[in-house]
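Tutorial, part two.
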Amino acid sequence: MNCVPKKWVCLLLPWVLLGPAAAVQGALQEEDSQPAALADTSKLWHYGAYLDVGYAANFNFPDNDLWRSRTTASRHNQPAPNMVLAYVRKDVSEVSRWGMELGVQGGYDSVDFAYLQGEKKVDGADVLRHLHRANASYLAPVGNGLTVTAGLFNSLMGYESLYAKDNANYTRSWIADNTPYMMFGVNAAYPVNDRLTVTGFVINRYYHLAYTVAQPSYGGKWSYALTPRLTAMQTLYWGPDQADASLEFWRLYGNHILEWKGDEVMIAASYDIGTENIANRPGSPRTFVTGGNLVVKWHVAGPWSVAVRPEFYWDRNGRWTGAEQFVKAVTSTVEYQFPSQWTRAVVRMEHRYDESTGVGGGFFKNGDSSFGVPKLAAGQHLFLVGLLLTFDSP
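Running the prediction step on this input gives:
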């Protein structure tokens, strides 16, 4: 792992040095191009930091203070430093075609985000989970521009981010917590035209820190602007996520998003569906999971915004959440953003109600059963307060 940053430095240094030189050479042919090119190059570098501290009051008052079957915002009835992050990034452009991204993170949300319930972790996962992103990219002069990215990059699947600051609600949906927040491998994105962008990817597995087999997974994504405000997206994933890499046990998963952005209102609908045969169970039963949600965010006035997200999630065989359950949930959020020149400070207050039914359904509640196993309740009310502090360079 220590050699990777050094390789990036070796790759980036020539381009950092040659980029301005190329701009100066172009200025000999076009006198006014030099200042613009140099200015564009300086704007490609970004750096920032982020802090997320929250408190979730769970009215089931579970003895273990945990949210069952969830990996983000999962510590309840106690102050929780859910995420701390620092990063540096260089964007690609025709002025300087090499880019990079490197960041480190910590907090409760970084602990179990990169594997499903019960999955074995790769060696060194407790250290690797602290990588926010770590990749290098190149904008190839092919047609409209082909961007190739290799390393640990933001997931091409799903609508919500691991980081609450990027979402309309403080807590994430059930779909988001059970699809990858990051991917490790290589992807290539190509804008076919102003409306359509297609991306192909080859990654190590569904969750990049889960231990399965040394065989890659594959997928693709397309994004199409139906109108200037309405965009449709679909991501398909196919790969081996069990010890047996036979094709009959490969996972097939589809993520579908429709997003409308108005001046003051944003509406996004997501629907996911996935399946795979289980190799280590009698008869190799076929698992099935599906879920959907609708996110509506309204900028009321000034620093005030509100958001609501109804959702459902059905894990028929318990493969994704570790429990056979059908979940319904409604999340309501009020946001206040403090005015600031250098940072973005946001306070969110949120209520959500989750109801889980089925053979394995339920949420932790106060008290243990006679066998020392936490008791379960079908429903769970949460009231949350989150402080999100973000610093991003211009």
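The chain has two domains: 1-42, 45-392. In part three we will examine how such features are distributed along the chain.
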